[in-house]
Design a protein that fits this description.
single chain, mainly alpha, TorD-like
């Protein structure tokens, strides 16, 4: 895999599809959608561009994910979208946000979680830019997108890396979806977190089955 920089910025817009597999593209789109919303994201949701990209990526997956209950209607204004993001994921009420987007808040030792993440990133030649926390969900999804895009190791090794990252660092997606669902969210963010939870579960099963087939073929 070529060296890359993991960031939480929106350098590549979802309006310009990348030459990636459907799995990789879907993780990349979710990474963009979970970042702090800018004008481009709001307009992309409002005019249906994001929904079209998500639908295209979902259609090419090697597994099926239920989406009939998901709704991609945008908040009325860009300011409304920012406000809802801040309420759900950044500030919330007196006890903090209903749902932090940092993995470390769901573990007993955040410093250890960060160390493990950095080692994982470093092994594949990734670097997180300054002022961006390695455990921020958009960063993790961007990294998973790069893993799913392939690399310079054998397919089995890359699949195992994806399995380990999903199991160790993205399994908390289910907690994210559960917390958001109980926080009276805007339908867009409820759908976004639900889709992520379902994707992680489906991808774990797909990779587990793929590795089982490959391991059996080597025996």
């Amino acid at each position: 895999m070529s060296h890359a920089t993991v960031t939480a910025t929106r350098e590549d817009s979802f309006r310009s599809p990348q030459d990636r597999s459907s799995r990789s593209q879907l993780y990349a789109l979710l990474s963009l959608a979970f970042a702090f919303p800018d004008v481009s994201l709001h307009s992309g949701v409002k005019d249906g561009q994001l929904a079209q990209q998500l639908t295209a990526a979902l259609g090419g997956l090697p597994c099926r994910i239920r989406t009939s209950d998901l709704h991609w209607t945008a908040p009325d204004s860009y300011e409304d979208m920012q406000t809802e993001y801040i309420r759900l994921f950044q500030i919330g009420g007196r006890r903090g946000p209903p749902c932090s987007l940092h993995e470390g808040f769901y573990t007993r030792d955040r410093s250890q979680t960060l160390q493990k993440l950095i080692r994982f990133y470093n092994y594949f030649g990734f670097r997180v830019v300054e002022c961006v926390m390695p455990d921020h969900l958009p960063v993790q999804l961007e990294f998973m997108s790069e893993l799913a895009a392939g690399g310079d190791v054998d397919d089995t090794g890359m699949l195992r890396a994806q399995r380990d990252f999903l199991n160790t660092h993205l399994a908390w997606a289910d907690d994210v979806a559960g917390r958001v669902a109980t926080s009276r969210p805007h339908p867009f963010y409820r759908s976004l977190t639900t889709l992520l939870s379902r994707l992680v579960a489906a991808d774990q099963k797909f990779i587990r089955n793929s590795l089982g087939d490959q391991d059996n073929g080597r025996n």
